[in-house]
Amino acid sequence: MRIDLYLVPGPVSEERLADKTIVLIDVLRASTTVCKALQSGARAIIPVEQPGEAAEMRDKIGVEETILGGERGGIKIDNFALGNSPLDYTPEAVAGKIVILTTTNGTQAYACAKYSKNIITGGLVNVSRVAAKVAKSDRDLVILCAGDEGDFSIEDTLCGGMLIHKLMDEFRIELKLNDAASLALLLYRNNSGSLAPTIASGEHGRLLAELGFADDVRFATEIDSIPVLPVLKNRKIVLEEN
Description:
alpha/beta; putative 2-phosphosulfolactate phosphatase; five-stranded parallel sheet; four-stranded mixed sheet; 11 helices; globular
């Protein structure tokens, strides 16, 4: 299996994504929020790039059927019901709803892979479930890290490295890695015993703590705490059917 990891979001040619499994990672916080929302009974999550697009989508689908969630700069968007804190996506808030979500980093990254047919949302909270799914596939893998406003983020790269480590160590898959994937694997192995404090002390972790979201950072680093498999189908992120 070949693995190409992209440390920051950006245009990726359709040819490089064709017939491959895509794992999109935004540990802080979109991936974690998607997992929590689906675990809490949301029918689906629709990722969109802009707040205006989210409002238009809500009007198109129906106000009663949907709920708007999103942030810019870590702060909930005005007139949105929810921000991007996974802790707010409780069954009481989202069960039975379609969540229309727009975030600074994570939902933007879905646009990079819009032509792919096999997109999985991955985070630390579901990394083992994602690894098991990838291991069963005969496709090569592309890992897209959402990053932080176009820059490198340590948490997404660590998560990508952990996923690669699991495929090698637990599933004994022979891998061919691009340089970024090799770097992510090395970063994970050097920090595997201190993931939570490493992420909390990272640039994005510190920013969220300053904004009052330290609990989100802790929640997002709880390994395998939400063992769901969110997949993108017809522009909607849903739980994979068993």
